[in-house]
Amino acid sequence: MKGAQGSTEDGNAHEAPLRAVDGPYPHSDESRGLHRPLELGHGAAQAEVVFDMNGEELILVTGATGFLGKRLVRELLERQPQARLALLIRDQAGQAGKERADAFIPAGDRLRVQVFSGDVSRPACGLDAETYGRLQGEMTRVVHSAATVRFDHSLDEARRINVEGTRHILDFVGGARQLRNFAYVGTAYVAGERSGLVGEDELEAGQTYRNTYEQTKAEAEALVRARLGSIPGVILRPSIIVGDSRTGATSSFKMMYWPLKIYARRLWRTVPGYPDAVLDIVPVDFVASAVARLLFEEAAQGTSVHLCAGPGGSATIDQIARRAMQYFNGPEPRYVDPRFFFAVLRPLLFMALWGRKRRVLRDGRAYRDYFTMRMQFDTSNAERLLKPAGITPPPVLEYLDRLFHYCVASEWGRKPVSGS
Fold it and tell me: H/E/C letters for each residue in 297-352?
């Protein structure tokens, strides 16, 4: 599951006034013969955007301000030193797209990055006709990772962002005259409420969905699949993305982190789920490396790839809970049948409890189905395409303590951690 419940990978959930281009980073290295792109502000929509790529790659990235997106941008800049990046970023109230990019683009790489204010959920991605046409003529590769990953959106709202946003991007790249590859970042949880082993090339299997996020990501993937015959592209399906496998660093403390936090703080130890339920998590460094690699892998085109821990690397809820019990010196986890808990116990507890424990009951509903999964993700395509390059996900239990340590060191995201 890309990102975390309660967040939006590129902020596309809310509309804001748009500028066609919001301050592409200025090019001052005239010795390289580069032209400085003209900056477009309000009232300057007809100004020309000049790209002088000298035969280099121009990679368009959506969702660059999300947890995965930030790491992916840095990965692309490092792996492709001759490439330039075009980032489509939505303006927020009081903060333009360029200002949002300034927060995570290394100063030494800004000459290679151009920031365009737009919104994938709007027609033409919110770009003026001139900018739209110029980008179509110059971009060579595209990564579409923009999405809302909230579980509680209405179906209409989730479709506006995830489905229509993907449709707009597909229309955009469909007219790209130099397109070499399109990477769509979806989620392994398009499998919905299936059980057993899920194949990488499977999508529709009569499954139902736990929330509007899963449903609309499945609908969006169906759109991509329908266009792969005319667009060179690959579908990438990460599972639950967590912090860096080496440092534990994360900027998102939702999904798996939320039940860990309430357990570590002794607020709750009851698990409305099954001890043998499978939790497939992958570190953000693995996913970013995999996306950056597969964007340039012709052998991946036309396929779907699970960026998951898989049967050999995932862990059960009980394995993770017991590791947490050891690390946090907490109480023994207590498992309750989820059907009984939500039908009988939770309504009674909700009336009896107040304060923080009542908030735990309220907020925990979004995660209830993820404690009951008995589903694994096949990773045959991933192993075939990534293993030769040395890109493999570490087993969950191998780096779990590093995630715990970062949670404690950062006070669950409330303070910075040096070196992260």
Answer: CHHHCCCEEEECCCCCCCEEHHHHHHHHHHHHCCCCCEECCHHHHHHHHHHHHHHH
Identify whether the C-beta of residue 245 lies closer than 8 Å to the C-beta of residue 283. Answer: yes
Q: Which of 88, 248, 240 is nearest to 168 (CA)?
A: 88
Minimum mean pLDDT among 18-22, 225-229, 291-295, 414-418: which range?
Answer: 18-22
Instruction: Output the six-digit token pair for 394.
Output: 């570490």
Please choose, from the candidates 19, 14, 4, 10, the residue with its C-alpha nearest in 3D space to the C-alpha of residue 160. Answer: 14
Please state, in angstroms and rounded to a whole number, the distance separating the CA atoms of residues 288 and 276.
29
Domains of the chain with CATH codes = 30-243+282-311+376-393 (3.40.50.720)
Cα 37 from Cα 116, distance rounded (Å): 11
Closest by CA position to 376, among listed 287, 298, 309: 309
- For the entire predicted model, the pTM comes to 0.85
Residue 90, φ and ψ in degrees, nearest 5:
-80, 135
